[in-house]
Every structure is written in structure tokens, then in C-alpha cells.
Amino acid sequence: MIPTSIYSKKARIKLLIMTVALVIGASTVIYTNLLVAKLSEREQQLIDLYAKGLRYMNNADINSGNLVFIQEEIIDANRSVPVILTDENEEPIAYKNLTLPQKISKKRENNLLRREIAKMKLQHKPIVVEEPGVFKNYIFYKDSELLTQLRYYPYVQLTVIACLSLIAYYAFSYSRKAEQNRVWVGLAKETAHQLGTPLSSLMAWYEYMKGSPRFDNEPIVEELGKDVRRLEIITERFSNIGSVPILKDEPLKKVVENAIGYLRNRVSQKVAFYIESEFPEETTAKVNIPLFEWVIENICKNAVDAMEGKGSITLRITKSNTKNAIALDIQDTGKGIPKTKQEEVFVPGFTTKKRGWGLGLALARRIIENYHQGRLFVKNSEVGKGTTFRMVLNR
Ligand SMILES: Nc1ncnc2c1ncn2[C@@H]1O[C@H](COP(=O)(O)OP(=O)(O)O)[C@@H](O)[C@H]1O
Ligand SMILES: [Mg+2]
């Protein structure tokens, strides 16, 4: 018996990874926001100084020797924050740190500047520089390119990381699935191959005994024949799972009846089987009989186990919500599967039985989903009342 906790362990690891990713993402955003706030404050200071410089220039005596200093050290020092100086009617007078197309008409330049002013207004209130009664100017400004980039940087970075992780995850799970496929297929092929040799020899022996007068009236021969045929079926299953199986349009109800026919004689007489169909007898579905019978057997054997040998199993062919598909419900009156385990039962190795392998449902799902392009799931189940598995097959 393999421990049943693989599935829940996986869920816990997923949760852990998600939490770590969330913490990293959040701290990146918080840290950059801190930087943005600092840089923004500095730009604010720069622009305040700029305004002060302008104010001083306007008030100063033309001959003041400080003018050069203010022009060079304060006004020109702003090399990053885009600013537009306007008159009281918001008509542009001068601008700085804005890249406008070269060689354009004055009118077009004015238009572009006005559009910039509109954008700047959304970000910051303009600074007023005035000498009451003499003049009134506005300084419009916006965040520098560096600051803007920094503001969006963490989101861009996180998006890129998220995309990369997603791609990595899919690549990884694809390669893991491919590996699993090779194991299933390889093992099945090997089994079919190994069974082949003794089986053909057994078949030859059986034919010999059937024809020999020495074994006339011996019931053994008949029984031997049955076992040989059963071995043949098993070999066929393994060989089908080890290759690309051929799907044929088969009358579904007949196929189900045949599959149950074998089981019926091998389980307790207290288990009743019912086969029902909402469709005409001859309605077909695309199946590979050896593999499909294997699925029915696995599900019904589980049902018998769940009922502890007493109860009823109903197989109902019914309509499916999926287009061009047909459903087969297998309902039992067993102990049921709790909600939290209804997906886990399909995980290879999950079992609640002392001597179980936990491969029956994993195999059944593989057969239906990979080989029949259908679906297999727990349709509903109630603890203590019973379970219904649903298979959706293509018509
Ligand atoms: N019809 C059912 N009713 C209740 N439990 C079920 C039923 N079918 C499957 N299970 C649960 O799913 C588990 C896995 O089934 P399976 O993959 O066939 O492995 P195994 O039969 O070897 O345990 C079972 O151990 C059982 O707990
Ligand atoms: Mg089983």
C-alpha cells in the first residue's frame, strides 16, 4: 500500500509556493513604491527651487551679480523634470526637458505644449510665480521619465515573471506527463510481450486436449479453455494500452452487457446488476472493446468492494451535456466517497484498501481520457448511500 498523502502534500507545496510568490510580489511593489515616493519628493523640491529661482530672477535688479548663479545653478540644474512656464492665461512662454519634434511651426509647437499642459494639470497643481499687479506666471510640471518608469516597473517585472513561471510550469508538467506515458506504455508492452509466449503454447495444448480422445468427457478441458480465453483477453488489454488503440462504433448496451456477463459470475450473488438505456438498443459509441471492458470491470469491482459484497450496481446509458457524446453512469449502493476525495481517487497510488494498489481508477481515467478522448469523473457520491461514476464517450 502506498501512502495516501501524496495528493495533499502536493496541494500544500502549491500553497506554499503561492504564498512565497505573493510575499515576493508584494514586497517588490511596496519597496518600489517607497523609492517612487522618495524620488517624487525630490522632484518636488527641485521644482520648488526652480520656482523660487524664477521668482527671484523676476524681482531682482538686472545688474545683480547673483543672476548668473541662479540661472546656471538653479534653473539649469533641472535636467529631468519636464516644465512649462506660462503667462496668466496659461499661454506657454518657455519649456524645459520636453522633447518636441524639431522644425515645427510655432503654432504646432503651441498646440503640443497646450496638450502637455493638460496632462501636467492631471498630475500636479501648477506653481504660481507672481508680483501682484505686475505679472503672474504659472509653472506646470510633470513627473520625470525616470519616475514614471519606476512607477510601472514592478508591475512590468511581475507580469514578465508570472508569464515565465507559467511557461515553465506547463513545460515541466508536459514533460512529466510524457514521462508517465512512457512508463505506462512501456510496462504494458512488456507485459503483453511476456505473456505472449506461454499463452500461445497454452493455446496449443488446449487445442490438442480438445481433440484427443483421452480427454473426452473431462470437464477440466472446458475450464482450461475458459482460463486460456481469459488470459488472452488480459494480454489483449495490455497490448492495446501499449499501442494506439483502434476505436470502433460499437453498440454500447451490448458491450456493457458482455462486460458485466463476466463479472456477474465472479462476485457475490448478493450483488444485483441492472443495465438500462435511454437509447435504442443499437445506439453506438466509439470504443475499443478490450480497454473499455477493463474500465467497466475496474469500476464495478470497486463498487462491489464499497458495498462489501451486498447491494446493487446500475449501469445507465444516458444523455450527455457534451455535444455528440453519450454518457454511461455506473451507480452503486456502497459506502460513498467524501467530497474531498472525489478527485483524489484518480491519483495513482490512492487507495483505502489494505491490499489495494490504487491503480484501478487511475488506469480507468487514462483509458477513457487518453485513449477514448472522453471523460471519467465522480458524478455524485454520498457517504453511506452510494456513488455514481460518469463516463462520457464520443458517438
Ligand atoms: N464505488 C466506490 N465507492 C467508494 N469508494 C470508492 C469507489 N471506487 C473507488 N473508491 C475509492 O477509491 C480508491 C481507489 O480505487 P482504485 O484506484 O480502484 O484502487 P484500489 O481499488 O486498489 O484501492 C479506493 O481505495 C476507494 O477508497
Ligand atoms: Mg480498484
From TrEMBL:
Catalytic EC class: transferase
Signal peptide annotation: none
TM region positions: 15-36, 152-172
Histidine kinase domain segment(s): 190-395
Keywords assigned: ATP-binding, Kinase, Membrane, Nucleotide-binding, Phosphoprotein, Transferase, Transmembrane, Transmembrane helix, Two-component regulatory system
Catalytic activity: ATP + protein L-histidine = ADP + protein N-phospho-L-histidine
Annotated EC: 2.7.13.3
One of the GO biological process terms: phosphorelay signal transduction system
Molecular function (Gene Ontology), one example: ATP binding
Gene3D superfamilies registered for this protein in UniProt: Histidine kinase-like ATPase, C-terminal domain
PROSITE patterns named among the record's database cross-references: HIS_KIN
Name assigned to this protein: histidine kinase
Species assigned in the record: Nibribacter ruber
